[in-house]
Every structure is written in C-alpha cells, then in structure tokens.
Amino acid sequence: MAEINSVTTLTQDGDVAVITLNSPPVNALSAKVREGLDEGFRQAIASDAKAIVLICEGRTFIAGADITEFGGAMTGPSLFDVQATMENSPKPVIAAIHGTALGGGLEVALCAHYRVAVPSARLGLPEVNLGLLPGAGGTQRLPRIVGVQKALEMVTSGQHVPAKQAAAMGLVDELVEEGKLREGAVAFANKAVAEKKPLVKVRENDARLAEAKGHPEIFADFRKANARKFRGFLAPEYNIRCIEAAVSQPFEEGLKTERKLFGELMSGPQSAAQRYYFFAERQAQKIPDVPDDTPTRPIKSVGIIGAGTMGGGIAMNFANVGIPVTIVEVKQDALDRGLATIRKNYERTASRGGITAEQVEQRTGLITGSLDMDSAFKDVDLVIEAVFERMDIKKDIFTNLDRICKPGAILATNTSGLNIDEIASVTKRPQDVIGLHFFSPANVMKLLEIVRADHTAKDVIATSMKLAKQIGKVAVLVGVTPGFVGNRILGQRQREAQKLVLEGAMPWDVDRVLYDFGFPMGPFAMSDLAGLDIGWVKEKSNGETIRDVLCEMDRRGQKTGAGYYDYDENRNAIPSPVTEKIIHDFIVKSGANPRKISDEEILERCLYPMINEGAKILEEGKAIRASDIDVVWVNGYGWPVYRGGPMHYGEQVGLDKVAAKMKDFQAKMGDQFKPSALLEKLVAEGKKFSDIKA
Ligand code: TC6
C-alpha cells in the first residue's frame, strides 16, 4: 500500500489499482483531497494495473467541493486537472459510490468511465441550494447521460437521487451489494478489462442532447412550470442557462459558459447568504454547554394534550417515524374530531402519492385517543401540552402531569410565548420541563423552537435536540422570553406594518414590498389567510382598530371572502375600496395627514426593527448566536434563504447603516426604534454579529 498523502492511499488488488480517500467528515474536495486524487491517478496510470477504482472511506463518497474553501484563494491542483487526468486515463476508471456523491463529488464521478454504487447511495448536484451551479462540468455532463429534462430537474432542485433510480437513468452503471462496494467495484473493473469495455467519456455522448436540439420550448415550459418555486432565486435560472448551453454549444464552449455563470453566482450576495445559511443550520445543533456526548433519555412513547390543529399536527410527526402517541382530550367529540382530521390529512397525502394506503393505516394506528390522562400518561416518556394559551390552564395541566408521569418523563409545553419557568414552577421536577414550540401546520413546518427554562436539565435538552432531528425538524435552542425568538421579532414587523397603514400606506403596498423582498406573502395577506378574528372577541370589539371594524363588518379574512382585501371566486386578493375608506377614516379621525410613503421606508421600517430586536435577544442571551435567529426566521417565517435571515441581512446592508437609520426613525417617531446597546457597540467597534463568539 502506498500512502499518497495524509488523506489518500493507493493499493493494488490483482490487476486493479484502488485509490482510497479518507478525509472526514464528508471527503469534501479540499486542496489535500485534490492533491491526493491528482497524484493517485498519475501513479495508478503509471503502474502496471489495468483498471482504476476510486473509493472513499467513512460515511460517504465525495460530498462536494469543500465549502469552507469558497471565497478564499485556491491552492493545490485544480479540480479540472484532476478530472482531465481521470477522463483521459488509458485504463478504465470506476467510481465506487456509497453515502452521497454530491456536487463536485458527482462531477468527479462523471469523469470516471463507469460508476458503481450500493443501493443506499444517493447522487445529486445540490449546488443550487448554495445559490450556485455545478461549476466543474456537471451541467454539461449530466444532460449527456440522463437527458435534458431530468438534468433540468436535478440541477434546479438539488435532489439526491437514490442509486436505484440513478441506475435506471443510466447515471449508475451497476448496483453492487450493500457493504461489498470495494469487492463489487473491483469485480466490475476486472470485467471491464476482460470484456474490453470502451473508455466512455461522458463529454462525448451528445446523443442524449439530440431530443432537445431545436426545441427551446422545453426550457420555456420548464421555467413557466417552476416560476413560483424559483421566484427571487438567481441560481435556478443560471442552472437552466447552463443546460441550455449544453444543448446549443459544443462541450468546451458550454464549459466556458458554465464557468462564467458559476463565477457570477459565487461572487454575488445570494450565494454568500445561502452558503452562510448552510453552516448556520449545522451550527444551530451545537450547544456550548450541552456537548454532543451528553446522554439522552429514550423516547419510545409520546403523550399529547389537546387534539386541536396543533396537537394533531404534532402527533403526526411522531407517528411518521414509528413512535406511538396517545392524545388526551377533555371531550369525546373533540377527540373524535381531532383523530378524524389526522386521518384526513394522511389520506390527502396518500391521494397525492406521498405515502401508501398501508402507511396511512400504520400511522393512524400509532395514534390513539383517551379522555383519561391518568391512565394514558402513566408510562409515556414525553408529554407535550398543546392546549390554548392560558397560564392558569397550563399550570393546572402541569400539576397533574407532575402527579401522573413516571420519574424521568419529559414534560413539554407547546406554548408560543408564555413563561415556561412559571409553568415549571408548579411541578416538583422543573429539570424535566422544556418548551417544544412547533409551528403550524406542525406536521409540515420544519422549525422547532426548543425553549430552555431556568432549570431544564442538559439531558432533556440533548434528548429534545436529538428527537427533533429524528422527526425531521430543524431545531433551535432559545431562552424564555415573551414570544421566544421568532414571535418576539415578528412583533416588531407587525407593529410597523400596522403603523405604516395609519400613516398613509395601504396594506397592499406593505404586502407588495415584503413579497418583492422575498417573503411568501405580506403581513396583511397573511392575516387574511389566518383569519382576522383570531383573538378577536365580538362582545368586546369597539371599533378601536382597523381589524375591529373589518371583523364587525364580517370581513374576517379569506374564509368570509373579504378581509383587508376583497377576494374573487378563485381567492385572488384584490385591493379593497372598503378597507381603503376605513383606513382613510381612521387617519382623518386621528387628525393626521396621510402621506406618501416610499417602498424604501416601508422595507426599512418593517425590517430594521427586527434586526434590532434580534440584537436585543442576543444581548439578553435568549439565543446562542446570531445565526440561530436566522435559522428561526428562514425555517419558520418565510424569510428568503437567499437573504440569509434578518441578522445576515443586517450585515449585508451594513450594521452601521441599520443603526443610523434606526436613530433617524427614533428622532422622528420614538424610542421603539432606539438601537440596542449591542448594535451600537458592534458599530462602534466595526464588528459584525458573526464576530460574537457563542
Ligand atoms: C460544490 O460541490 C461545487 C462544486 C463546484 C466546483 C468548482 N464542505 O450535514 P452534516 C460538514 S458545492 C465542507 O451534519 P449529514 C458539515 O458542515 C458542494 N464541509 O452531515 C458538518 O460539519 P460539522 C456541493 C462540509 O450526514 C459535517 O460535514 N455539496 C461539506 O447529515 C457533517 O455534515 C453539497 O452541497 C462540504 N461540502 O449529511 C453537500 N458538507 O460536523 C453539502 C458537509 O463540523 N453537504 N460538511 O458541523 C450535505 O448535504 C450533507 O453534509 C451530507 C451529509 C448529505 C453530505
């Protein structure tokens, strides 16, 4: 065995040279890895071996370029040189794939003459999720194997295609037995030699492109079909242009186009935000005083209190991963309704092909109902309370849980803002109490705010973080503060949106500015969707707010056909003269003069106070790091990922600019705009949020 460098070895197995990479955690294409590949292939080609296998140790085949190297100066051999050496090898090169062959990893594999994989492997070009495109020939080679339509889908979605499917598409030449990749790859290599299989260069395979030549409508249709999904993002469009180039230009020209567009994306703000965000999500899993090896408690059964929308949605998360759930309600009809809704949700997913009819039965079978908390919760490992937001009711429930649950059971509340320390105080085991704040619809939304109270034990936190991963959530640990991180920041935007309307902006102006910024919808359209009467009490309504008046007129949102907006029969929102008149009357009554408000002011008034509130949250230690706040807002509140989240966006604008504008607003409109001490300090020191160490 020859050691090529610290991450690469070259061995020979009969007639087959085997280059093995071992660069944890994911064999990313760092300078060392490129160096190892370059040298490894040169030596293998020079040796007496008749074929060459490239294989990786550890959890995965090469998972892509080393993202941490992006933005810095490139050292070591270029990936293109390595690819050329492989592709031009006079001996067959076989890529042996397990785990994930992603991005640059798949682009390397596409320069092998053949690819073999174990069935559990997945292959993909996920660069689009980093605001990029496959810049090492991926957009030119992939359509030459899988065809234009599939290539378009893969590069714009970033999906990881399972090996079996990849084999059906021609991307994988042979599936080998799980756990026997090396033997399988070497056998394939020997076969290639014995059968004198051709040295297939994907770049020369133009036949698959023929079907798209002279058919520009393929691209036009694809853009149209995905317009909503791609809105605001640059990378999908750039990826499409590269595939167009693959069809319309010779290979070398196509490569040049790819390289040029890759450079543009790489140097732009969207990719910077998306790469930042990739690490932000991973960073959020790290809790300084709860290390990875903190023991966890087994969670084999879950109890939920409340069969409403929230409780039902939460229950589905656990049933989806095979954990049995018991839902407790006070009344039989509420329980029946809740269980029926869960079944309906699963059936709807099945009707769209998301799960099988058998899975519907399996999952609903894991969710049972009960009216008797004492017997239902005696043995469960975790209880999540999901009743409505009243402290007295929650305290009552936790007093009961303390009495009923076995020692060591985790007692969680799904409150979206009440003080969890106060809830925990009624139990004799505050160390077992934690907040698990799911977002509606809880079976769909990715975000989970895990709320650490004063006495929450570390193993309870570790267990909750692990469980979140198991049920497919992105968890962020936050502290107890009104509204926690997400809703507390939302409060700032909502306040300004309302105020802007009382100064002369129309709800549709505010909505349009925020929609164009990249949110899925603005705050007024959102209120109409959710229902204006959430929290509105008819008997107490006295026309004091615009909402009161709208609700009194039975304009309670989309469900009544009108709210801030009017709605046509297809639920299209139309600016409403009725709302306009109500707003106008309010302004006149207040003695103010409506003024023309610029889009710029709308954006700054809505967003800068959010950044400032984020800074206060950091200052108070209610979030571990600024990027955690961004993870909350991207996953839970529709902040466009290509703008990184409020804190990253603040840095992109410039914290000095944000602080100066806040001071300007403060002078004109009051102390709600006062920059936080942390923001002022960072500006004074020329630092960023990301300079603060967790
Ligand atoms: C590209 O290839 C462009 C090519 C153009 C050529 C010019 N680089 O996700 P996990 C780290 S673009 C550096 O928790 P999993 C990650 O930060 C790239 N580091 O594990 C984490 O570090 P920590 C295209 C990376 O098993 C650790 O590895 N490729 C990279 O849940 C474990 O990661 C992609 O976009 C990287 N490329 O999932 C793939 N990847 O432990 C991105 C991971 O210090 N990666 N790390 O926190 C993934 O999708 C997943 O990591 C995974 C493994 C599916 C490979």
What does this protein structure show overall?
- By secondary structure, the protein is of the alpha/beta class.
- It has three domains: 2-267, 2-enoyl-CoA Hydratase, Chain A, domain 1, CATH 3.90.226; 302-481, NAD(P)-binding Rossmann-like Domain (Rossmann fold, 3-Layer(aba) Sandwich); 505-590, Orthogonal Bundle (N-(1-d-carboxylethyl)-l-norvaline Dehydrogenase, domain 2).
- It contains 29 helices and 20 strands.
- The strands form four sheets. An eight-stranded mixed sheet has the order 13-12-11-14-15-16-17-18, with helices on both faces. A seven-stranded mixed sheet has the order 1-2-3-4-5-7-10, sandwiched between helices. Strands 6-8-9 form a three-stranded mixed sheet.
- Strand 3 (16-21), helix 1 and strand 4 (51-56) form a beta-alpha-beta unit.
- Helix 13 packs across helix 14 (332-351) and helix 25 crosses helix 28.
- It is globular and about 90 Å long.
- The mean pLDDT is 96.
- It binds (2E)-Hexenoyl-CoA (TC6).
- (2E)-Hexenoyl-CoA is lined by residues 25-26, 28, 60, 63-68, 79, 100, 102-104, 126-127, 130, 134-136, 279, 282.
- (2E)-Hexenoyl-CoA binds at residues 25-26, 28, 60, 63-68, 79, 100, 102-104, 126-127, 130, 134-136, 279, 282.
In a few lines, what is going on in this structure?
The protein is α/β, with parallel strands linked by helices. β17, α19 (458-470) and β18 form a beta-alpha-beta unit. The mean pLDDT is 96.
